[in-house]
From TrEMBL:
Residues 1-79 form the Carrier domain. This is Acyl carrier protein. It holds the Pfam family PP-binding. InterPro entries: ACP-like_sf, PP-bd_ACP. The lineage of its organism: Bacteria, Pseudomonadati, Pseudomonadota, Alphaproteobacteria, Sphingomonadales.
């Protein structure tokens, strides 16, 4: 089982190729406002996260995830199930 810190490291690594603005990543970094991602970028990123962690993030969960920290928490929760 991966620790939350390990999950954060992997998430940050996955964000890298999509971080065109070179935004410094923190727990509070938002996908829409800080990273300025459009819906297509979000879909590509979600697919990368799902592949990396072998999980499924539902559309309802995606709607509730606004920042990097919330994503790490969601991944940890899904991996526990």
């Amino acid at each position: 089982m991966a620790s939350r810190e390990q999950i954060m490291e992997k998430v940050e690594g996955l964000i890298g190729p999509f971080n065109n603005k070179g935004v410094e990543l923190k727990e509070e970094t938002t996908f829409a406002n800080d990273l300025e991602w459009d819906s297509l970028t979000v879909m590509d990123f979600v697919a990368a996260v799902e592949d990396e962690f072998d999980i499924i993030i539902t559309m309802n969960m995606q709607a509730e995830i606004e920042n990097v920290g919330q994503l790490a928490d969601a991944v940890a929760k899904l991996m526990d199930n």
